[in-house]
């Protein structure tokens, strides 16, 4: 067929062309179904392989966790023991620190007690109220330090500012009431100050000043004790607290934890070398036959698909070179060729070329006129 001019051919040539086109169409459809089947098989193969891998991962993880469980439990138990010993050690150190602080500050405590007793005895002997040794008394009547000044100003502000302000927010509080308040406060303050000064400072100024100095010395001793306590707490030397027993026990627990960790690592290495390969072999051995069969079918159909693709290309080239080159692509369809065949069967043409000319004339004749 390819060696002759199809335009000179008879109706048998058209039959051959129609048959070639139908075969080409059937080949394309068969290749399409085969490609779809290949896609399904490839998808099923991938899912089966993934299912195998998922089962392997799950089994390996479960088995690995089972291997680690006993070791992890033992390590967790050692951690709790270590924590308990550490807590006991901390408590023992804290007790030792307290004892050391008490021992190193005992003489200062004793000195403070002696100073306090000295003040009490002096006040009792001269019948001076202990109020005269209080913080507020010293701030009001023996003001010297900055804290004394602040306390004094606070008392003045409370009496002459804070209380009047509270009275002023009372609805319809009379002005004469505020004046009366200030008058009463001034009188009370003047009378009280006069009485206190006469009863205490005038008669016992020397003893009160002595008590003030002793009070400052006591305060200085408190600062010394705080400094000693701070130095003891920050001292890194723990030899004097007798903590060796706790340290030895903690080192023993740490060594045991280290040993268990090493045994765990060895068990995991053995698992990787023996158990894991056996698990993989068992699962793959169970599923390999089915997966290999799917792969074999996939390879077979892929090879067949490749042949069909090549055949389609050859058919397409043949149709293009031998049919479309003579008739034009628009006439190389089953429908158009069947119509040309009808022209030849009806006796309207003896050759394909004549049938094509008659067909074109009929189209031209039946086409609507531009005027229409």
Topology:
Layout: H1 11-104, H2 106-125, H3 135-141, H4 146-168, H5 175-234, H6 244-327, H7 334-345, H8 352-366
Helix pairs in contact: 1-5, 1-6, 1-7, 2-5, 3-4, 4-5, 7-8
Explain what you see.
This protein is an all-alpha fold and 372 residues long. The protein is 85% helix and 0% strand. It has helices spanning 11-104, 106-125, 135-141, 146-168, 175-234, 244-327, 334-345, 352-366. Helix 3 crosses helix 4 and helix 7 (334-345) packs across helix 8 (352-366). The longest helix is centred in the N-terminal third of the chain and has 94 residues, at 11-104.
Brief write-up:
The protein is mainly alpha-helical.
Q: Give the count of helical stretches.
A: 8
Over all CA atoms, what is the radius of gyration?
A: 57 Å
Largest sheet: none
End-to-end separation: 44 Å
């Amino acid at each position: 067929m390819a060696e002759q001019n199809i335009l000179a051919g008879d109706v048998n040539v058209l039959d051959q062309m129609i048959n070639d086109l139908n075969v080409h169409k059937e080949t394309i459809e068969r290749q399409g179904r085969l490609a779809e089947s290949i896609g399904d098989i490839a998808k099923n193969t991938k899912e089966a392989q993934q299912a195998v891998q998922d089962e392997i991962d799950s089994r390996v993880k479960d088995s690995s966790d089972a291997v680690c469980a006993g070791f992890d439990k033992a390590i967790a138990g050692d951690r709790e023991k270590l924590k308990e010993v550490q807590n006991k050690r901390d408590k023992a150190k804290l007790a030792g620190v307290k004892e050391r602080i008490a021992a190193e500050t005992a003489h200062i405590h004793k000195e403070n007690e002696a100073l306090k007793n000295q003040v009490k005895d002096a006040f009792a002997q001269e019948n001076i109220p202990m109020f005269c040794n209080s913080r507020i008394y010293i701030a009001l009547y023996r003001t010297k330090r900055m804290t004394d000044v602040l306390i004094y100003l606070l008392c003045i502000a409370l009496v002459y500012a804070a209380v009047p302000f509270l009275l002023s927010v009372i609805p319809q509080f009379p002005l004469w009431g505020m004046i009366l308040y200030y008058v009463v406060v001034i009188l009370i303050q003047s009378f009280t100050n006069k009485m206190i000064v006469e009863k205490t400072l005038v008669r016992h100024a020397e003893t009160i000043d002595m008590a003030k100095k002793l009070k400052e010395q006591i305060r200085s001793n408190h600062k010394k004790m705080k400094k000693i306590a701070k130095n003891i707490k920050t001292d890194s030397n723990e030899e004097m607290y007798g903590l060796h027993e706790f340290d030895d026990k903690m080192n023993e627990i740490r060594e045991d934890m280290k040993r268990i960790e090493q045994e765990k690592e060895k068990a995991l290495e053995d698992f990787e070398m023996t158990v894991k390969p056996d698990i993989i072999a068992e699962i793959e051995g169970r599923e390999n036959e089915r997966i290999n069969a799917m792969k074999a079918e996939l390879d077979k159909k892929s090879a067949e698909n490749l042949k069909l693709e090549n055949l389609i290309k050859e058919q397409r080239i043949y149709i293009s070179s031998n049919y479309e080159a003579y008739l034009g692509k628009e006439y190389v369809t089953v429908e158009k060729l069947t119509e040309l065949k009808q022209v030849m069967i009806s006796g309207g043409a003896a050759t394909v070329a004549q049938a094509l000319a008659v067909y074109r004339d009929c189209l031209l004749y039946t086409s609507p006129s531009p005027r229409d």
